[in-house]
C-alpha cells in the first residue's frame, strides 16, 4: 500500500509504501538470494514512491541500476497506478555480510543509476547519475538533488530471511519549493535519530503510523492511498511486436535456423515460443 500526505501547512510532501506483498510476489517469481531480494525490494519500493512524480495514467517510471558488483543490474518499473515489476541480473548473487547486515552496496558495486519517466511524449525524460553507495536510498536522494534539484529524505528497507520476506517498505519526505528552512533543518535532524523503517514495520507499525510519527508536531493530511501490486504487463502480442521490430533480416535468419524463437520475460519468467510458421507470418 502507498500513502501520500501533505504536512506542515502543505509545505512538505510525505509518501510512504509498505511493499511486503509486492516483494513476496517478486521473491516467489525470481527465487533470489537475500541480498538480491533486498536490492530488488528497495528498488521496487523506490519506483513506487517516485511514481507520485507522474501526472497521468499510462505513464510509467523506471529505475535502472547498472553496477560492476556480483548482482549486475537492477531494474524496477512502476505505473502511475502503482503496478510495479522488476528483476536483478544475477538473482543468485551472494556477498559476505557487512557489519552483520546484508551488503547491498557491495553486491551492486560501482556504476550508475538512471531514472526514466515515460510521460507519453515522443521522448521519455531520462536522468543518469553515478552511484553514491549502491545502497539505493542514498543513490535516489542524490539523483533527485542533482538531476531534478529536489531535496528529499528517503528511507528504504527490506528484512528477509532465507525463506520469506519479513518486512519491506520506505518513505520519502520532500519539502516543496519555498519551504521554511527551519522545517527542513528539523526534519533532517529527525532522520538521524529515527529508527530504521524495517525495525518499525517488523514491530507491527503501519506505514501511516510511521509517517505520522516522523512528522509529529506538524499538521498532516492524507491526499491519497493506492493499492500496490507486483504485476507484469507482458503478453504474446507484445513479444510478437518486439520480434517484428528486429526487422526482416533477423527474422529470416531465425526461420533458416529452424529452431523457432523462444523469448523469456525477465519480469515474470513467462516463456513465449514462436515456431517457424509463426515467424513467417511476422515477415
Ligand atoms: Zn512478463
What's the number of extended β-strand segments?
Answer: 13
Terminus-to-terminus distance: 44 Å
Q: What ligands does this structure carry?
A: zinc ion
| Outline type | globular
Uncertain runs: none
Binned strand content: 25-35%
Radius of gyration using CA atoms only: 20 Å
- Give a quick account of the main beta sheet: strands, pairing sense, barrel closure: 6 strands, mixed
Structural summary, described in words:
- With 283 residues, this protein is of the alpha+beta class.
- It has ten helices and 13 strands.
- The strands form three sheets. It has a six-stranded mixed sheet with strand order 7-6-3-4-5-11, with helices on one face.
- Strand 4 and strand 5 form a beta hairpin.
- Helix 9 runs antiparallel to helix 10.
- The termini are far apart.
- 38% of the residues are buried.
- Bound molecules: zinc ion.
- The site of zinc ion has 6 residues, from loops.
